[in-house]
Amino acid sequence: MSLHQTIRIRHETRRRRLTVASIEALTPHMLRLSFVCADLAGFVSASHDDHIKLFFSDASGKAAARDFTPRRFDAAQGTLTIDFALHETGPATAWAASARVGDVLEIGGPRGSSVVPDDFDWYVLIGDETALPAMGRRVEELRAGPQACVFAVVRDEGERLILTSAAELTTHWLHRREGDEDAEMLIAALSSWRQPDGDGFIWIAAEASVARSLRQYFIEQRAHPREWIKASGYWKRGHAETHEKIED
Ligand SMILES: Cc1cc2nc3c(=O)[nH]c(=O)nc-3n(C[C@H](O)[C@H](O)[C@H](O)COP(=O)(O)OP(=O)(O)OC[C@H]3O[C@@H](n4cnc5c(N)ncnc54)[C@H](O)[C@@H]3O)c2cc1C
């Protein structure tokens, strides 16, 4: 296999029913729900930024689907963990905020995985609360050796998480103040950041316009190779249920 080659894998998908086994408030606005599922055998999630569809239906039976990250899973034990960043409104937020042990949730996927190899010299992961599950999983799964640098924007100090990694990890927490724009805060923090030597992969997930601005920053200001950047809109201000792959 050649150096730095991303591998794409398709998975057979089917719907599964999960049952809430435990609920933990990681922070005031981040809920960790662990689920058990009798038929998790065959569930595959090969990459930290895979997504599963969560299906919700309201009192009138109207269905909605939202994308979430399989934060941790153990097919043999039949357990899956999902972290929910709670925000103002939406079926996923409302469901998670009122979930109780024993509640059932239907999921689908992941349909595929895009696996970025661990042969880079360094990794930068940038995102907001919705990206923290994927960033946390990525740094946990990295081998010892490369440098990993996380830039995370959260509402305040109370929303910081403990991230662990075998890699050489540095985490920069940025807290929003009234009127702060995530993209400006992140770019200001990045402008005083010294990029390590060697080849690096940049992963970005945030509100779509923020992810777009950051990708542009790395292309224009740091002349970073496009193929070593992956940017995604994990949500879009004013829109429900979005997932944007940010490209030229
Ligand atoms: C691949 C992928 C993986 C994801 N993984 C996770 C994950 O593991 N955990 C997680 O919490 N989220 C994750 N997200 C983001 C999540 O899907 C969105 O935040 C989604 O909009 C939540 O659904 P909802 O029903 O709560 O809100 P929606 O009904 O979708 O949206 C309602 C309103 O809230 C706004 N909104 C949505 N998200 C936010 C936010 N974070 N802050 C402020 N306003 C918001 C929308 O613009 C809309 O106006 C992921 C998204 C993608 C694409």
Short précis:
The protein has 248 residues and is of the alpha/beta class.
Structural class determined from secondary elements: alpha/beta
Relative helix content? 10-25%
Q: How would you state the average pLDDT, rounded?
A: 95
Instruction: Tell me the name of the CATH class of the largest domain.
Output: Alpha Beta
- The SSE string, one letter per element, is EEEEEEEHEEEHEEHEHEE
Give a verbal description of the structure:
With 248 residues, the chain is of the alpha/beta class. It has two domains: 7-112, Elongation Factor Tu (Ef-tu), domain 3; 118-246, Rossmann fold (3-Layer(aba) Sandwich), CATH 3.40.50.80. The chain is 17% helix and 38% strand. It has helices at 91-98, 132-141, 182-191, 208-220; strands spanning 7-10, 15-27, 30-36, 52-57, 63-68, 72-74, 79-85, 104-108, 112-115, 122-127, 147-154, 168-175, 200-207, 229-235, 244-246. Strands 5-4-8-2-3-7-6 form a seven-stranded antiparallel β-sheet, covered by helices on one side. The protein has a six-stranded mixed β-sheet with strand order 12-11-10-13-14-15, sandwiched between helices. Helix 2 links the parallel strand 10 (122-127) and strand 11. Helix 3 runs parallel beside helix 4 (208-220). It is globular, with a radius of gyration of 18 Å. The two termini are 27 Å apart. The model has no long low-confidence stretch (mean pLDDT 95). Bound molecules: flavin-adenine dinucleotide (FAD).
